[in-house]
Amino acid sequence: MNIRKAVIPAAGFGTRFLPASKALPKEMLNVVDKPLIQYCVEEAAGSGLDKIGIVTSRGKAVLEDHFDRCPELEALLEEKGQVDLLEEVRRVQGLAEITAIRQPQALGLGHAILMGETFVAGEPFAALTPDDIYDCETPCTRQLVEVFLEKQATVIVLGRVDREGTKKYGIVKPKPLSDRIFRILDMAEKPGPEKAFSDLGILGRYVFTPEIFDDIRETPPDGRGEIQITDAIRLHLRSRPVYGLLFEGRRFDCGDKFGYLEATVRLALKRPEFRDRFRSLLESALND
User: Fold this and answer.
1) Could you tell me what percentage of the chain is helix, strand and coil, using 3-state DSSP and rounding each to the nearest 5?
2) Inter-residue contact 246 to 140 (CB < 8 Å)
3) Per-residue pLDDT tens over the stretch 26-49
């Protein structure tokens, strides 16, 4: 089984970024000069996934618009001779075939992924959370796809977390198969340092077999009435193998304000047109 499709859950309110996210979807907040959702779609497209379902909610049509054609803008850029900008606009429009999937009520990440079942149509698929920017030589999702093609089973991305991270992420009980690949024996959602199986957290990238949808349906809501994808994967691994991959690269947690600032600084410093001036600005600010 190969993989062509990705589901990107983007229906939440983004309350951690209020008031910035009150009228503008959090996924449209820029890091340097691209919105979060574009980093996510570019990663999926760069991993060979050309059909992407974005799970949205009321007031988020701008996410779909961002990847749609805008003939008026193209005509304006062409008239002004701004060829580089015109090519970039057209590149973004051609990244993938985008489908908007409406989630009527935000009931957790598991429920958001379940909304993509009709779009997935019985195929294996990737799921990517737009809060996470992965800066990797080989796109993070591509790393997972390569393991999936070998194992033909669900694969989740893993990263090392500190004690605080065990309160923020799902934590796995791993059986090492190599330096980077693990068979997952168990997992828990945000267990805290005392109950954590390991220091390996689940960090927002997944490749699922379509059977995950049955497991999501069987997963009871948590205390907040939300269906957690970690709990659904835990059900999944009781009857099917689940693997974890320790990714190669760097991740920025842009669902956190500090992580968002870190992504902005580090990704700006990688851009040749900004690097020297931005480094000087940072040095000057630190000396003020």
Assistant:
1) 40, 25, 35
2) no
3) 999 999 999 999 999 999 999 999
Assign 106 a pLDDT band (cuts: 50, 70, 90).
Answer: confident
Residue 21's alpha-carbon distances to 83, 132, 189, 191, in angstroms, are 32, 17, 26, 29
CA dist 172 and 199 (Å) reads 8
**Residue 224 confidence class, pLDDT cut points 50, 70, 90:** confident
Q: CA 280 to CA 161: how far, in whole Å?
A: 31
Give the pTM.
0.92
Domains of the chain: 5-270+279-287 (3.90.550.10)
Please answer whether residues 25 and 106 qualify as being in contact, where contact means their C-beta atoms are separated by less than 8 angstroms: no
Mind listing the pLDDT tens digit for each residue in 147-169?
Answer: 999 999 999 999 999 999 999 99
Pairing of strands 242-246, 170-176: unpaired
Q: Output the six-digit token pair for 95.
A: 């990244």
- On the question of a cis peptide bond just before residue 19, with omega within 30 degrees of 0, the verdict is yes
Q: Using the 8-state DSSP alphabet, how is residue 219 labeled?
A: P
Residue 218 neighbours by CB distance under 10 Å: 12
**Residue that has been written with the tokens 């009321």 in this structure:** 58
Residue 139 to residues 74, 133, 146, 192, 259: CA-CA distances in angstroms? 29, 10, 11, 30, 19
Return left, alpha or beta for 173; rule: phi > 0 is left, psi -120 to 50 is alpha, else beta. beta
| Mean pLDDT along residues 86-95 | 90
